Amino acid sequence: MPDLTRESSLHSRGRQRVAGVDEAGRGPLAGPVAAAAVILPRGFSCPGLDDSKKITAARREALYQKLTGNPEVVWAVAIADCLEIDRLNILRATHLAMRRAVEAIDPPPDHCLIDGLPLRAFPVPHDAIVKGDGLSLSIAAASIIAKVTRDRLMREIDREFPQFGFARHQGYGTKEHLEALRIHGPCRHHRRSFQPVAQLALPLDGT
């Protein structure tokens, strides 16, 4: 289970505001990528808080409410939309969403713990931790907030384009989603630079 070992080590070295940063939605064929930055209070405890991919949707929602409803938890969430993903590529768009989330925290963090690999030109000193959402409690908290935020956005998109089933698969390339793409063609929330969306020569639906 993730803990505060890395955060506490940074605190002991004078870093007072340590933010965990994580994203949700790099792999889907549609919708935005979301990123969250979270600063947990020292000694924070939240039973069951873990990598968002390891727990159920209902548990994620409960943890989201507990985290965002705690006045001692400092957090921000941001997105990069499908147009930015197509223009920049998914990696750079993900980094953009992360920067936006971190820059939305005021005052800014002293240091960030980021899930994944090091980022170039990031505005705050950071440590990159592969599979950090299973190691750092603040990254795990960011993974929950990013995932729940994105899932909610996909439910909104589903109401706009119910024929794709976005509320069920969140834009991932499931059999259901691929069949809907074949029948209806891409909508304005699809990532046109992603295969197999890019292969479709059908007119853009819903513009």
Straight-line N-to-C gap: 45 Å
Annotated CATH architecture: 2-Layer Sandwich
Strand and helix order: HEEHEHHEEHHH
CATH fold naming = Nucleotidyltransferase, domain 5
Largest beta-sheet details: 5 strands, mixed
Q: Number of helical runs? A: 7
Strand content: 5-15%
Q: Write down the Rg.
A: 18 Å
Oligomer: single chain
Helix proportion range? 25-40%
Output the strand order for the largest sheet. Answer: 3-2-1-4-5
User: What is the arithmetic mean of pLDDT?
Assistant: 94
Provide the CATH top-level class: Alpha Beta
Number of domains as seen in the coordinates: 1
Secondary-structure class: alpha/beta
Structural description of this entry:
By secondary structure, the chain is α/β, with parallel strands linked by helices. The protein has a single domain (5-159), classed as 2-Layer Sandwich (Nucleotidyltransferase, domain 5). Helix content is 38%, strand content 14%. It is built from seven helices and five strands. Helix 2 packs across helix 5 (137-160) and helix 3 crosses helix 4.
